[in-house]
Fold:
Amino acid sequence: MTIQFNAKTRVLQGTSASRRLRRAGSVPAVVYGSGAPAQIEVDHNEIFHALRNEAFHASVLTMVLDGANQSVILKDTQWHPYKQQVLHLDFQRVDATHKIHVKVPLHFINADIAPGVKLEGGMVSHPLTELDLECLPGDLPEFVEVDLKDLKTGSSIHVSALTLPKGVKALTHGEDPVVATILAVRGGDDAAEETPAA
Structure:
């Protein structure tokens, strides 16, 4: 799936110029990597709706800059502290032959049929909701699936147990963090036993 957005070169720079841009319905942004950084602007409404799409954060994007296509990834987004307003964006150019580092969301499936939930009344905990991956742009997955169907209460799934696409490596800095675990819910059965019969 190709995700495309429009941008144009930003001529005026500085704090006051950025404020004027925002008032006019645009968002200042920068594109770096593979050459000199470029100051750009994007339409606020277009980018606001694009950011609501999970895949926009973890995909190689096609940026149409002044009519020419460039492949980029989103690296950072700055939001207004309390308004639904995007203040600034950072993009990085990508080259098909060079590996990139991208945080990709985790999708948890089959929690409802996990023995720890269905049979033991446990609760799923997600210490991680995204994973830092290294791969070539063409190998980047939109998400990584975590199957909980065999998980029992007190058991955990670690990053090393995840099935990643070919050519994709998880960056865990020598650790093997927990991705999901099922916690026992206290009080349910014990409370019932302690309550005397009427």
Summary: The CA atoms of residues 98 and 136 lie 6 Å apart. The helical segments are 15-23, 44-51, 115-118, 188-194. Residues 15-23 form the longest helix (9 residues).
